[in-house]
Amino acid sequence: MLEHKLISIMKTYNNLNRDLTLVQALNLPHWCIAAGYVRNYVWNYLHGFNKPSSLNDVDILYYDPSDTREQTEKNLESILQNEVRDYNWSIKNQARMHERNNEQTYLSVADAMKRWPETATATAITIGKSNKLEVIAPHGLNDLFDLVVRQSPYFKDTDCFHNRVQSKQWLETWPNLKLIVEETQH
Asked: Where exactly are the structural domains of the chain?
């Protein structure tokens, strides 16, 4: 099962326990570490890279409709920044992100993630109730492990998708990636 494989790979990341413990200590509802933190590490691992690629930021997601103030997120980022200065922490409450994205209210972290530009990016890891690592992947994990960059069917801005792939230089950084362009998405 790919979830077990992802957890096994992520457990080889030296900073994983520290990072998860720091975020867990914030006591956020329905939280996870997502996007490039997971995606890049898996792609590095699958490419056999010994040195991790740099992260633009470390995306922390949570879902709390009772407090959708952006300032709350900034305060949480400051707490983490004081703990680990070599990360650019980015904390976003997915209960408010639908407004920024001009969409209907997201129902959960997973519901928000499925609307991200790429399927492989919509992957996260968290500590579950039984203190075990859990995966959130609304599009599944096949694209991540098959090294596929594919536009999410819920993300309608194809130009934005292509610009992201190009500006982030994923195909150059990870030469085994395959860009899949769906015919139905114009």
From this structure: 2-180
